[in-house]
């Protein structure tokens, strides 16, 4: 859910942004404060963000023609579309993750030490790992867009970008922790049968874990991220 919140907030920011780096692009009112079009956008945790955000793809009418640089506007629209799609995907992934968690309950309810128990644990662990990797991959995909918004967006909504980044880091940390634990559990459970085709997923899952580690390490060091 933290990923859905981060994507929702990023979408709201994209809707309210004005190009900060192009000459003549107005940012808020004459005194630099947020205009009526920005009202509520810099509140960090406004009702719109919590409920999913408006996912607006238009700049407020009071921004004026001076801020409508063609290349910037195309980039902003692309960001808004991606984060809107990601928000919906994040909600679906949250439902899938809940189902994966339920499989653990069923597996651990079986008599311990039996082949049936070990096999069920491995299936549940692999399913949990796949779910966590999908969440982590979606979170990683949002990083470049948040970086773009922090560089090119309206400074009046910088606080919202910071909140979205914090929510994204929380989602990424949770997914990384679960993925690591699921992989460890899968590998610790005695295999009831020979290696299956499912084991081929392990390499890809470990790659995703490494990517999440790298992103969190870069973020913790203050190095930031760069968009592709």
From TrEMBL:
Stored InterPro entries: Cyclodeamin/CycHdrlase (IPR007044), Formintransfe-cycloase-like_sf (IPR036178)
Span of domain Cyclodeaminase/cyclohydrolase: 73-183
Feature: compositional bias, Low complexity: 32-42
Cleavable signal peptide: none
Annotated segments matching region Disordered: 29-73
A Pfam family matched in the record: FTCD_C
Segments passing through the bilayer: none
Designated name of the protein: Cyclodeaminase/cyclohydrolase domain-containing protein
Organism the protein comes from: Herbiconiux moechotypicola
């Amino acid at each position: 859910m933290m990923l859905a919140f981060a994507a929702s907030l990023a979408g709201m920011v994209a809707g309210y942004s004005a190009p900060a780096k192009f000459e003549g692009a107005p940012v808020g009112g004459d005194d630099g404060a947020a205009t009526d079009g920005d009202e509520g956008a810099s509140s960090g945790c406004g009702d719109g963000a919590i409920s999913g955000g408006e996912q607006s793809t238009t700049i407020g009418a009071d921004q004026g023609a001076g801020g409508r640089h063609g290349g910037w506007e195309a980039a902003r629209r692309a960001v808004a579309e991606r984060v809107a799609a990601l928000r919906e995907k994040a909600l679906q992934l949250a439902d899938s993750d809940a189902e994966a968690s339920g499989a653990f309950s069923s597996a651990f309810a079986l008599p311990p030490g039996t082949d049936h128990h070990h096999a069920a644990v491995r299936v549940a662990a692999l399913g949990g790992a796949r779910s966590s990797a999908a969440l982590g991959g979606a979170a990683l995909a949002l990083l470049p867009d948040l970086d773009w918004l922090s560089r090119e967006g309206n400074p009046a909504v910088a606080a919202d970008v910071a909140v979205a980044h914090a929510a994204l880091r929380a989602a990424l940390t949770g997914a990384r922790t679960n993925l690591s634990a699921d992989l460890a559990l899968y590998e610790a459970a005695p295999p009831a049968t020979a290696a299956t085709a499912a084991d081929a997923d392990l390499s890809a899952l470990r790659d995703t874990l490494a990517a999440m580690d790298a992103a969190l390490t870069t973020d913790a060091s203050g190095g930031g991220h760069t968009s592709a």
